[in-house]
Design goal:
- Helices cover 67% and strands 0% of the residues.
- The relative contact order is 0.08.
Length: 143
């Protein structure tokens, strides 16, 4: 999440440094950055360091969105990622199921008087199950 916020700073440093001094403004030490370096050298060699946008780009960077918008993982990723979206929907269903199971088990324990659930062990197991479901549901609500 911090990457989205930090990625905005090099854009401005590169712009301020100028076309030929971009490497002084942004250090790219890893092999994975070789493509970026190669691209920038190609742009400098064949396009004089800039793309001709035909007047559609003034060189001004767009304003930086507020931190809340930058850090919003749900809208920036989960909504658009099919895997994460499916997991989010499944988690929502699981929350409802856990709550239903929890209250159902509590209802069974409360409704039983002298029947089969009069055993301390059976009652304890059902109460532990209800407590587990409720705690797990609470943990899911926090995420």
């Amino acid at each position: 999440m911090m990457d989205q916020k930090l990625d905005r700073k090099p854009e401005r440093r590169i712009r301020d440094a100028g076309i030929t001094q971009w490497q002084k403004a942004c250090f790219v030490p890893t092999k994975s950055d070789a493509a970026v370096v190669g691209f920038r050298k190609w742009i400098y060699k064949y396009a004089c360091g800039q793309v001709d946008w035909r007047g559609k780009f003034t060189g001004a960077l767009p304003p930086t969105p507020p931190n809340k918008q930058l850090m919003d993982r749900y809208r920036s990723h989960v909504v658009n990622c099919s895997s994460c979206n499916a997991a989010h929907k499944n988690t929502s269903v699981l929350k409802v199921v856990l709550e239903v199971v929890s209250f159902s088990v509590l209802g069974i324990v409360a409704a039983s008087k002298q029947g089969a659930l009069s055993s301390v062990v059976a009652t304890s197991v059902l109460l532990a199950t209800a407590l587990f479901c409720e705690c797990y549901n609470h943990a899911l609500l926090e995420h």
